[in-house]
Structure formats: C-alpha cells, structure tokens
Amino acid sequence: MTIHYYLEGYSGDSLKSRRYELRELPSVVGRHVECDLQLNMESISRQHARFDLVDNKLIVTDLGSTNGTFVNRQCIREPTELEAGFVLHLGDHEFRLMVEVGPLTQAARDSTRVGIGNLPNQFPLHTREFFELLQRRMVKGYKQLIAHNDGSPFAFELLGRGDHPILGESPAALFNLAETLDSEAALSRLFRERCFEDAARAKISVPLFFNTHPNESNDFDSLLSELTRLRAIYPMLELVFEVHEAAITDLDAMAEVRRSLKRLNIGLAYDDFGAGQARLLEVVEVPPDYLKFDIALVRDLEGSTAGRYQLLSTLNDLISGLGIKTLAEGVETEQTAALCREIGIDLIQGFLYGRPEPIIECERASTF
C-alpha cells in the first residue's frame, strides 16, 4: 500500500486551495531553494520544519524557525505526531495535512483522501493577520486614570489596543480571535510589554496597574519569570500586578506569588472582586495591597438604604480594616462617586474621571 502525504492550503488571496506534495520523507520545508519543499512565503524560515516517517507515523519537527510551527494551533517544541486532517501553521501560513492511499493518480486525488475530504468552511478569519500582529508587535499602549476618591489623580491602569489595519483596536475582538488560536497568553504578554515600553518612554512616575489574562494564572512560574525579566528592563516603573479574583484558588501558590512580587518591588491587586464568589478567606490569608470592587457592585449604586450599598459598605469596612486600599471600578456619574466617598472607598476608576487614552500621545500629562 502506497501512502502519499501533502499539505493543502491557500496561496495569497486566492479562494482556491493548492496542494504541496511531501514527495520524499524525510522532507525539509522552508524558503531555501535547497529545501525538499520550497515555500517562498513571508514569515516562513529558510529551513522551517522537517517531516519524517517513523514507525509508519508522520512526525513534524520545528527547525528553530523564527515564527514557529503550530499543530492544531499549539506551538510545538518537540517532534510531534501528525494525523490526516490536522491543521498546521508554518509561521502565519495555514495548511491542513492530507493523505492519499494508492497510486498517485488524478482518480486517487479525487477519491482516496483519508480522514477529511476538503478544507472546512469555517477556518478562523484573519489568522494570518493575527500572527502578523504578534510578529510585528502591532499594538499600542493605553492608560486610564485611577483617582483618589476626591477626584485627584493617583495612578493609571495600563491597557492594550490593536494597531493592525485589518484587525482594528478592540482588545475584546483580538482576544476572541486569540482564543481560537490558543494564543491568549501571547497576546496578553505583547500588550504588557508594549505598555511597559510606552510608559517608560513617557517617564510615568505614578503607580501603574497592569493586567494578565486568566490563562496566564495556570502557570504562575512562567508569569513570574516574565515579570522578573521585565522588571530588570524597567526598574524605574512603579508597578501593581492585578490578579483576577477567580485565579485566587490555591492559597499556598498565591502566597508564593505575593513573596515573589515583593522581591521584585511590584504591588499586588485583586481585580474584579465580587464578580463571582467573594473570596474573603484568600483576602485575609494573602492580603493584597489593593482590592478592586467589580463594576457589577458599583454601577448604578443607589442611596444608603439600598441593599447593594449596604453590601459594598460592609465589604469595604472589612477590607479596609485589614489595611488594604479599596478601589471602585466603573464609576460614571458624580452620584456614584459621592456614594463611594460616603462608603469610604479609597480610589475610583471609570469614565467619570477619564477614558482610556494612548500613553505616548499624552506624554506631557503622564506624571500629573
């Protein structure tokens, strides 16, 4: 039985798929003219990946490419077994592995594909553009004012926005696309790096709150390693690391994160408190420097007799009593701000005091 392997993908802007034969195995794929399969495409390395047949199994190995080799949208670090129908990305170029059994005839091409017949109708849109955004760092750093409860400036929260002509600015849309490509952490890291870079250029000297994607909390060791690297590059920035409430589930791990942040001279904030379960035990056992009340607790806050007011007041008294500064998110009206002051919340963030704005375009106002 003769088995033929090939990659099927789209060339340029053409809507017609094209097949790229793996005529001999092992087969090196890349831009170099001496590769077994030459793909003269931008973002593919000179020698990008190698395909081998080992014990009748097709194996792909990345050859130290610049932009990575992905199998089913997972970046591979080791030789990886392939099956018919698997999606491969070489750089930002997308292919599907196809298999034919029998003589390499036109009839065989038409009728003996194994595993899957045609490319699916719903590939994630703009895959190439997304990987271009990551590769070329096409994002911008934004900041939003955090004020004292009297309205005077205190700090900024760092936020990222896209800067790709096709994908647009919306971080929500970019993270939705990143989720389909299992690249949420990569996008989050890029936003963070750009914000730190821009903040340093702007010489911002006030506290800077920065976010992480929930997926990054699955590997705090890697996250802390990255923060150690960034702290060495930007020792001048006053940083506050925001952790989503839902990520605070392992007290021992969180305590180690707290100790590591202290060594790096980075503050700690618990974000979106009250969005799910109010994890009071975690707050007591591993107290942060700041606690941010979720927008759901704050928005449309009514008078002092309302249940939400009473709940927020009780929580604020408890948390403030632990020496933790409290912050209300999503404040949009003077009435809400006045009620937050009445409760005793320390800090306020929301459209009332400022919308997100580019860091670099506002350099003159960055340090108050």
Protein described:
The chain is an alpha/beta fold and 368 residues long. 29% of the residues lie in helices and 28% in strands. The chain has ten helices and 20 strands. The strands form three sheets. Strands 12-13-14-15-16-17-18-19 form an eight-stranded mixed barrel. A six-stranded antiparallel sheet has the order 2-1-11-10-7-8, with no helix packed on it. A hairpin with a 2-residue loop joins strand 5 and strand 6. It is elongated, with a radius of gyration of 26 Å. InterPro entries: Cyclic-di-GMP_PDE-like, EAL_dom, EAL_sf, FHA_dom, SMAD_FHA_dom_sf.
Set out the fold topology.
Elements (H helix, E strand, L loop, with lengths): L2 E8 L6 E6 L4 E4 L6 E2 L10 E6 L2 E6 L6 E3 L2 E2 L4 E2 L5 E4 L2 E9 L4 H6 L15 H10 L2 E10 L4 E10 L8 H10 L3 H18 L6 E3 L9 H14 L5 E6 L6 H13 L2 E8 L6 H6 L4 E4 L1 H4 L8 H14 L4 E4 L5 H10 L3 E3 L7 E2 L10
Parallel strand pairs: 3-4, 13-14, 14-15, 15-16, 16-17, 17-18, 18-19
Antiparallel strand pairs: 1-2, 1-11, 3-5, 5-6, 6-9, 7-8, 7-10, 10-11, 12-13, 12-19, 12-20
InterPro entries: Cyclic-di-GMP_PDE-like, EAL_dom, EAL_sf, FHA_dom, SMAD_FHA_dom_sf
Protein name: EAL domain-containing protein
Pfam families: EAL, FHA
